[in-house]
């Protein structure tokens, strides 16, 4: 019998078969641990919860009810950046650290954000369609109305790891970059060659607005109608963060009524979207299926990282990426607080 039991729903990760935990075991090293797969239902997980030393969360919701059933669990591991499928508050109340993988695919998401920015700006899909439909001469007149990219302003809402990588790329294209983040010191933002600004100023001056706010209950619907109305009519909105951080109805109205000029979206409020979602019919939108982080290294890197976090906590050490929003019992290590738009830039 193994020293530790890692409980997980029987759901295969991309490119893997059920029962394949080779990458996680690489992260665990020599630790004697057994992965126990159960039917991917809350009922089955609750029935097995008492024996779990670690809950490996993937592919479904992990509710307060399930977390309450964990008897001796020391850790909830997520092999993803987002942890919105786990009730982190319930885990915190029970003293269970929740970990994620915040820095294993930063470069991929930043590349994807720049791809969406460049493609929407240069009307890539519309230009491609013109060629395929035999409208060769229609392409240049469309682009003749579009300003040069160099010298325009990119506004970053939140300034975490991905946003910083986007800023680095954007400056190479000659963009002026500004950022709003009430939880990041202005001097740190400035050290990246980025101008710290208030949210109203960012909305007013930006030609491109890229959303990077993490998904928390407090962040749901943070960008509302008044924010889209405050943007330039020529502005393009990019979102590679989380769909629920944006009031999608307000975004649809903004695009339909031309409060803004276009959007590049990797994330939506409902995923996958209903086929009657107006965004799917808009020509000035570029969509991708929440795959900005995908690359050949995506699955191995995040799964190894999850195993490493399990090994750290099971051997009594602090993990690399604990996302619990308060001080955990018995710890003096403070964690990030929920993101709030109504706080000032120096809060």
> Could you state the CATH homologous superfamily of the largest domain?
NAD(P)-binding Rossmann-like Domain
Identify the CATH class of the largest domain: Alpha Beta
Q: Structural class from helices and strands?
A: alpha/beta
Portion in helices: 25-40%
Query: How many structurally independent domains?
Result: 2
Shape field: elongated
Unreliable stretches covering 5 or more consecutive residues: 330-347
Distance between the termini: 51 Å
Order of helices and strands: EHEHEHEHEHHHEHEHEHEHEHEEH
- SS summary, helix count: 13
- Percent of sequence in beta strands: 5-15%
Give me the side-by-side strand order of the main sheet: 8-7-6-9-10-11-12
CATH architecture heading of the largest domain = 3-Layer(aba) Sandwich
CATH topology of the largest domain: Rossmann fold
Tally of DSSP β-strands: 12
Give the overall pLDDT as a whole number: 91
Largest sheet: 7 strands, parallel
How many whole angstroms does the radius of gyration measure? 22 Å
